[in-house]
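=== RUN LOG ===
request id: a7f3
mode: sequence -> structure
chains: 1
length: 213
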Amino acid sequence: MSAREAIFAAIRKTRPERAPPAEIAAQALACSEAMKKTLKPLEQDDLAALFAARASSDKVGASVERVASLADLPAAVARYVDANALAPEFSLQPDPRLEKLDWDELRPGAPLRPDSAFAVGIALCGVAETGSLVFHSSREAPTLYEFLPLHHLVALDAKTLLPRLEDYAAFARDLAVPRNVNLVTGASGTTDIEGVLARGAHGPGRLHIVIFD
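=== RESULT ===
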Protein backbone atom coordinates (compact mmCIF):
# COMPACT_ATOMS: atom_id res chain seq x y z
CA MET A 1 0.00 0.00 0.00
CA SER A 2 1.36 3.42 -0.99
CA ALA A 3 1.49 6.35 1.44
CA ARG A 4 -1.41 7.98 -0.43
CA GLU A 5 -3.57 4.86 -0.14
CA ALA A 6 -2.71 4.53 3.55
CA ILE A 7 -3.78 8.13 4.24
CA PHE A 8 -7.14 7.70 2.50
CA ALA A 9 -7.73 4.36 4.20
CA ALA A 10 -7.19 6.04 7.59
CA ILE A 11 -9.61 8.81 6.67
CA ARG A 12 -12.29 6.30 5.67
CA LYS A 13 -11.98 4.49 9.02
CA THR A 14 -12.57 7.71 10.99
CA ARG A 15 -15.41 9.03 8.80
CA PRO A 16 -18.86 8.43 10.34
CA GLU A 17 -21.52 6.66 8.34
CA ARG A 18 -23.39 9.09 6.13
CA ALA A 19 -27.11 9.42 6.91
CA PRO A 20 -29.62 8.84 4.09
CA PRO A 21 -30.63 12.06 2.21
CA ALA A 22 -34.22 11.83 3.49
CA GLU A 23 -32.98 11.75 7.08
CA ILE A 24 -30.68 14.74 6.51
CA ALA A 25 -33.57 16.69 4.94
CA ALA A 26 -35.84 15.86 7.89
CA GLN A 27 -33.18 17.03 10.35
CA ALA A 28 -32.69 20.27 8.43
CA LEU A 29 -36.44 20.90 8.41
CA ALA A 30 -36.67 20.25 12.14
CA CYS A 31 -33.85 22.71 12.81
CA SER A 32 -35.55 25.32 10.62
CA GLU A 33 -38.88 24.94 12.41
CA ALA A 34 -37.20 25.13 15.81
CA MET A 35 -35.39 28.31 14.81
CA LYS A 36 -38.61 29.99 13.65
CA LYS A 37 -40.00 29.69 17.18
CA THR A 38 -37.21 31.93 18.47
CA LEU A 39 -37.88 34.77 16.00
CA LYS A 40 -39.71 37.91 17.01
CA PRO A 41 -43.17 38.45 15.44
CA LEU A 42 -43.27 40.64 12.35
CA GLU A 43 -44.31 44.22 12.91
CA GLN A 44 -47.48 43.79 10.85
CA ASP A 45 -49.45 41.01 9.19
CA ASP A 46 -49.91 42.79 5.84
CA LEU A 47 -46.83 41.49 3.99
CA ALA A 48 -47.19 43.93 1.10
CA ALA A 49 -47.35 46.90 3.45
CA LEU A 50 -44.40 45.62 5.47
CA PHE A 51 -42.37 45.00 2.31
CA ALA A 52 -43.15 48.48 1.00
CA ALA A 53 -42.13 50.08 4.29
CA ARG A 54 -38.84 48.17 4.41
CA ALA A 55 -37.96 48.68 0.73
CA SER A 56 -38.69 52.42 0.77
CA SER A 57 -36.80 53.10 4.01
CA ASP A 58 -33.76 55.38 3.87
CA LYS A 59 -31.35 52.48 4.40
CA VAL A 60 -32.74 50.39 1.54
CA GLY A 61 -33.41 53.30 -0.81
CA ALA A 62 -35.98 51.86 -3.23
CA SER A 63 -39.29 53.39 -4.27
CA VAL A 64 -42.50 51.36 -4.24
CA GLU A 65 -45.98 51.63 -5.68
CA ARG A 66 -48.93 49.24 -5.78
CA VAL A 67 -51.21 48.53 -8.72
CA ALA A 68 -54.24 46.32 -9.18
CA SER A 69 -52.73 43.82 -11.63
CA LEU A 70 -49.74 43.08 -13.84
CA ALA A 71 -51.66 44.65 -16.73
CA ASP A 72 -51.16 48.02 -14.99
CA LEU A 73 -47.36 47.72 -15.14
CA PRO A 74 -46.93 49.64 -18.45
CA ALA A 75 -48.83 52.62 -17.02
CA ALA A 76 -46.61 52.52 -13.91
CA VAL A 77 -43.50 52.42 -16.12
CA ALA A 78 -44.83 55.37 -18.16
CA ARG A 79 -45.32 57.38 -14.97
CA TYR A 80 -41.76 56.59 -13.88
CA VAL A 81 -40.41 57.59 -17.30
CA ASP A 82 -42.20 60.95 -17.15
CA ALA A 83 -41.19 61.63 -13.54
CA ASN A 84 -37.51 60.97 -14.26
CA ALA A 85 -37.35 62.48 -17.76
CA LEU A 86 -36.25 59.20 -19.33
CA ALA A 87 -36.47 58.21 -22.98
CA PRO A 88 -39.23 55.68 -23.77
CA GLU A 89 -36.72 53.06 -25.01
CA PHE A 90 -35.82 50.43 -22.44
CA SER A 91 -34.70 46.83 -22.05
CA LEU A 92 -37.38 44.31 -21.13
CA GLN A 93 -36.62 41.08 -19.31
CA PRO A 94 -37.57 38.27 -21.75
CA ASP A 95 -40.34 36.92 -19.56
CA PRO A 96 -43.53 35.96 -21.47
CA ARG A 97 -45.68 37.63 -18.81
CA LEU A 98 -43.99 40.94 -19.56
CA GLU A 99 -43.66 40.53 -23.32
CA LYS A 100 -47.41 40.10 -23.83
CA LEU A 101 -48.33 43.33 -22.02
CA ASP A 102 -49.56 46.35 -23.98
CA TRP A 103 -46.65 48.80 -23.83
CA ASP A 104 -48.46 51.41 -25.95
CA GLU A 105 -46.08 54.29 -26.72
CA LEU A 106 -43.18 52.83 -24.72
CA ARG A 107 -40.51 50.97 -26.68
CA PRO A 108 -39.26 47.86 -24.83
CA GLY A 109 -36.93 46.52 -27.51
CA ALA A 110 -33.66 48.19 -26.51
CA PRO A 111 -30.75 45.75 -26.02
CA LEU A 112 -29.30 45.53 -22.52
CA ARG A 113 -25.91 47.26 -22.33
CA PRO A 114 -23.55 48.39 -19.55
CA ASP A 115 -24.78 51.96 -20.13
CA SER A 116 -28.50 51.14 -20.36
CA ALA A 117 -30.63 53.87 -18.82
CA PHE A 118 -33.31 51.54 -17.52
CA ALA A 119 -34.72 48.05 -17.69
CA VAL A 120 -37.96 46.43 -16.60
CA GLY A 121 -38.13 42.97 -15.03
CA ILE A 122 -40.11 40.75 -12.71
CA ALA A 123 -38.94 39.15 -9.46
CA LEU A 124 -39.42 35.53 -8.47
CA CYS A 125 -40.58 36.56 -4.99
CA GLY A 126 -40.00 39.09 -2.25
CA VAL A 127 -39.04 38.98 1.43
CA ALA A 128 -41.24 41.28 3.52
CA GLU A 129 -39.02 41.42 6.61
CA THR A 130 -36.07 42.92 4.71
CA GLY A 131 -37.69 44.43 1.60
CA SER A 132 -35.59 42.12 -0.58
CA LEU A 133 -36.27 40.86 -4.10
CA VAL A 134 -35.28 37.32 -5.11
CA PHE A 135 -34.22 36.46 -8.66
CA HIS A 136 -33.43 33.00 -10.08
CA SER A 137 -31.36 33.10 -13.24
CA SER A 138 -32.83 31.47 -16.35
CA ARG A 139 -33.36 32.13 -20.04
CA GLU A 140 -36.37 34.21 -19.07
CA ALA A 141 -34.48 36.01 -16.29
CA PRO A 142 -30.89 36.83 -17.31
CA THR A 143 -28.83 37.92 -14.32
CA LEU A 144 -27.45 41.09 -15.92
CA TYR A 145 -30.88 42.73 -15.76
CA GLU A 146 -30.34 43.10 -12.02
CA PHE A 147 -26.94 44.79 -12.41
CA LEU A 148 -26.47 46.76 -15.64
CA PRO A 149 -29.19 49.43 -15.95
CA LEU A 150 -29.05 52.72 -14.08
CA HIS A 151 -32.78 52.46 -13.31
CA HIS A 152 -34.27 49.04 -12.58
CA LEU A 153 -38.07 48.73 -12.47
CA VAL A 154 -39.25 45.44 -11.03
CA ALA A 155 -42.74 43.93 -10.93
CA LEU A 156 -43.50 41.87 -7.83
CA ASP A 157 -46.53 39.62 -7.40
CA ALA A 158 -48.02 40.20 -3.94
CA LYS A 159 -48.91 36.49 -3.76
CA THR A 160 -45.20 35.59 -3.80
CA LEU A 161 -44.29 37.72 -0.78
CA LEU A 162 -42.66 35.68 1.98
CA PRO A 163 -42.59 36.75 5.64
CA ARG A 164 -38.88 36.09 6.24
CA LEU A 165 -35.76 34.99 4.43
CA GLU A 166 -36.01 31.64 6.23
CA ASP A 167 -39.27 30.99 4.35
CA TYR A 168 -37.47 31.18 1.02
CA ALA A 169 -36.01 27.67 1.46
CA ALA A 170 -39.47 26.12 1.63
CA PHE A 171 -40.69 28.31 -1.24
CA ALA A 172 -37.85 27.25 -3.54
CA ARG A 173 -37.75 23.58 -2.51
CA ASP A 174 -39.80 22.33 -5.48
CA LEU A 175 -38.46 24.81 -8.05
CA ALA A 176 -35.88 24.01 -10.67
CA VAL A 177 -32.36 24.62 -9.34
CA PRO A 178 -31.05 27.85 -10.93
CA ARG A 179 -27.50 28.53 -11.97
CA ASN A 180 -27.45 31.36 -9.44
CA VAL A 181 -29.72 33.21 -7.04
CA ASN A 182 -29.58 36.96 -6.43
CA LEU A 183 -31.17 38.70 -3.46
CA VAL A 184 -31.47 42.42 -4.14
CA THR A 185 -32.20 44.72 -1.23
CA GLY A 186 -32.62 48.23 -2.54
CA ALA A 187 -30.58 50.30 -4.93
CA SER A 188 -26.85 49.76 -5.20
CA GLY A 189 -24.82 51.92 -2.84
CA THR A 190 -21.54 52.25 -1.00
CA THR A 191 -20.10 54.42 1.78
CA ASP A 192 -16.51 53.37 1.25
CA ILE A 193 -15.30 56.91 0.52
CA GLU A 194 -15.39 59.12 3.62
CA GLY A 195 -18.63 57.52 4.79
CA VAL A 196 -20.66 59.36 2.13
CA LEU A 197 -23.42 57.29 0.52
CA ALA A 198 -23.01 56.98 -3.25
CA ARG A 199 -25.71 55.26 -5.28
CA GLY A 200 -25.04 53.07 -8.31
CA ALA A 201 -21.67 51.78 -7.17
CA HIS A 202 -22.03 48.18 -8.36
CA GLY A 203 -25.54 48.01 -9.81
CA PRO A 204 -28.61 50.16 -10.48
CA GLY A 205 -28.59 53.53 -8.77
CA ARG A 206 -32.39 53.59 -8.68
CA LEU A 207 -34.73 50.71 -7.90
CA HIS A 208 -38.49 51.09 -8.35
CA ILE A 209 -40.74 48.20 -7.31
CA VAL A 210 -44.30 47.80 -8.58
CA ILE A 211 -46.32 45.42 -6.41
CA PHE A 212 -49.33 43.99 -8.23
CA ASP A 213 -52.24 42.15 -6.61
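=== NOTES ===
The first helix runs from residue 3 to 14.
Residues 43-212 form a domain with the Rossmann fold fold (CATH 3.40.50.10420).
=== END ===
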